[in-house]
From TrEMBL:
Signal peptide limits: none
Pfam family, one: ADH_N
Protein name: Zinc-type alcohol dehydrogenase-like protein
Superkingdom of origin organism: Bacteria
Domain Enoyl reductase (ER): 17-334
GO molecular function, one term: oxidoreductase activity
Family: Belongs to the zinc-containing alcohol dehydrogenase family. Quinone oxidoreductase subfamily.
UniProt keyword annotations, A-Z: Metal-binding, Oxidoreductase, Zinc
InterPro entries for the chain: ADH-like_C, ADH-like_N, ADH_Zn_typ-1, ER, GroES-like_sf, Lipid_raft_assoc_Zn_ADH, NAD(P)-bd_dom_sf
Length: 336
């Protein structure tokens, strides 16, 4: 089976022009857990722009895209929960061609059915960021994934981005007080809309701003931007036996000794770890099934803020420009 895809041969900077191209690729043979999906919409995440710049990711041509809503058109022999015609959503994997494609093959275990009362575009904005936030809060920081069952305060560095917006909602649902950082009026307003109890300015002294709110240390801190820059200060702010987490790679060695006297934990979260290493893969489908419940109960809202219609190299180049501008609030979805 052949699919039309939007990809590129070598990593490139946007300033060097548009190197996205249209290709036709042969889809792989289905294994027993796989399904073929006709994609309806995808969202663009910061990881897309980083992989485009580095030229890493899937085999050439590099076909990115790690969020999708699509229709199942074919199923493998051991697929149990899905049928042809089902609308599903998923966050994909870096080990296969992504969702910048008209059709793709995906492991059914990392997908979930999408009920008819949930819109395609709103759902396409959520899988990667929700799984990332869920794994960090409930699998890494050991919070209880139940409504109002937790106590304490979470500080989120960069609260208005995709993961920050979802983590704010999840942490509030779970019972935590949430403090986020933002600098522009629009991002502050968005973070408050997502449920933040306090929003402080990451262009100003965070320790002083927290002290004015009555906080000298915190049990949970989540760095979603510039790990190197914030690490030392966040170690100082972490309370004993607290959890400091990050989803952003470091460009230099981090001094973990700063956490020793506090028995502090440092938690990395990388959403693709499970699929990269074939570890507890089905849990991601279960997390998305949980997301469906929260959406239907209106306990969480989509972070969709912008939709671009179309399927062409120009459309994806435009999407990457918007996301890479660092002015994006919420999530951008491309609707095919």
């Amino acid at each position: 089976m052949i699919s039309r895809v939007i990809g590129f041969e070598k990593g490139f900077q946007l300033s060097n022009g548009n190197h996205f191209e249209t290709y036709e690729v042969m889809l792989p043979k289905l294994n027993k857990f796989d399904v073929v999906v006709k994609n309806l919409a995808t969202s663009i995440n910061p990881v897309d722009t980083k992989l485009r710049q580095s030229g890493k990711g899937t085999a050439q041509p590099h076909v990115l895209g790690f969020d999708s809503v699509g229709i199942v058109t074919q199923i493998g022999s051991d697929v149990e929960k899905l049928q042809v015609g089902d609308r599903i959503f998923f966050a994909g994997t870096t080990t296969r061609y992504g969702s910048y494609s008209e059709q793709q093959v995906v492991d059914s275990r990392i997908t979930a059915k999408l009920p008819s009362d949930l819109s395609t575009d709103s759902a396409a904005a959520l899988p990667l960021t929700f799984i990332t936030a869920y794994e960090m809060l409930f699998e890494k920081m050991n919070l209880i994934p139940k409504e109002r069952e937790n106590k304490g305060t979470l500080l989120i560095i960069n609260g208005a981005g995709g993961v920050g917006s979802v983590a704010t909602q999840l942490a509030k649902w779970a019972g935590l007080t949430v403090i986020t950082t933002a600098s522009r009026n629009e991002s502050k307003a968005w973070s408050e809309k997502m449920g933040a109890d306090h929003v402080i300015d990451h262009h100003k002294d965070l320790t002083k701003q927290l002290a004015k709110l009555g906080y000298t240390n915190l049990p949970y801190i989540l760095i979603l931007h510039s790990t190197d820059y914030y690490f030392d200060e966040m170690c100082d702010l972490l309370e004993p036996f607290g959890h400091l987490g990050s989803i952003v790679g470091a460009t230099k060695d981090l001094n973990m000794a700063k956490l020793k006297d506090k028995s502090g934990s440092f938690d990395w979260e990388y959403m693709f770890s499970k699929t990269d290493h074939d570890f507890n893969v089905a849990s991601q489908g279960e997390i998305l099934e949980f997301l469906v419940e929260l959406l239907q109960e209106k306990k969480i809202q989509s972070t969709l803020t912008k939709i671009i219609p179309g399927f062409s190299p120009e459309i994806f180049y435009q999407g990457h420009q918007i996301v890479e501008s660092n002015e994006m609030i919420g999530k951008l979805v491309i609707h095919y």
